[in-house]
Amino acid sequence: MLEQIGSVDAQILLFIQNYLRNDFLNPIMCFITSLGNYGLLWISISVVLLFNRKTRRAGVLSLIALAASHAINTWIIKELVGRVRPYETVQGLICLIPPERSTSFPSGHSASAFASATVLYRKLRGKAGVIFIILAFVIAFSRLYVGVHYPTDVLCGCLSGFLIGYLTTVIDDRISRKKEGAAA
């Protein structure tokens, strides 16, 4: 079964390379993928939110979700799985950015993007939250486009990030309700 998944992963990456990549999009997607490097975009957004009293909680929770996502995905899952990057194994796949030093599974860019975007979506509501979710999807797709992750890496990174972001907000909501109940 893992062989079949690996084969489908490779076919999707080659499809993206052969039918979606083009000279116009290549630099744009390379830039978009760089936005997720080290989670700096999401950290920056979270820090900016700290300066406004109305958005401070969203910023703090986003930073917590980012830290949890990094710890779980980078220090635990990537170390346990140790999957090599697709440009090392998929015949004919060309990577558009310099080779990554870490292992492939799960996608840290996707996990960070979805951890932060889920928190921001749930806490900010409205158009701002939707924009963050769209940005997370675009960054996740960019990892496939540039050839540094398998689709299953990205999918699992998105799922992991979503779950971490969601759980962060659920725990915060419960703590807030307990504080409100104790104050009443």
Explain what the structure shows.
It is a single chain. The protein has 184 residues and is mainly α. Helix content is 77%, strand content 0%. The chain has eight helices and no strands. The chain has helices at 2-20, 25-35, 40-50, 56-81, 86-89, 108-124, 126-145, 151-183. Helix 2 crosses helix 7 (126-145) and helix 7 runs antiparallel to helix 8 (151-183). The termini are far apart. The mean pLDDT is 95.
Q: Which key terms come to mind for this protein?
A:
184 residues; mainly alpha; 8 helices; 0% strand; elongated
Secondary-structure map with pairings?
Layout: H1 2-20, H2 25-35, H3 40-50, H4 56-81, H5 86-89, H6 108-124, H7 126-145, H8 151-183
Short description:
This protein is mostly helical and 184 residues long. The protein has 8 helices and no strands.
Along the chain, the helix and strand elements come as HHHHHHHH
Total DSSP E strands: 0
CA gyration radius, whole angstroms:
18 Å
Percent of residues in helices: over 70%
Mean pLDDT: 95
Distance between the termini: 55 Å
Task: Describe the main β-sheet briefly.
Answer: none
Low-confidence stretches: none
Strand content: under 5%
Query: Tally the helices: what do you get?
Result: 8
Secondary-structure-derived class: mainly alpha
**Overall geometric form:** elongated
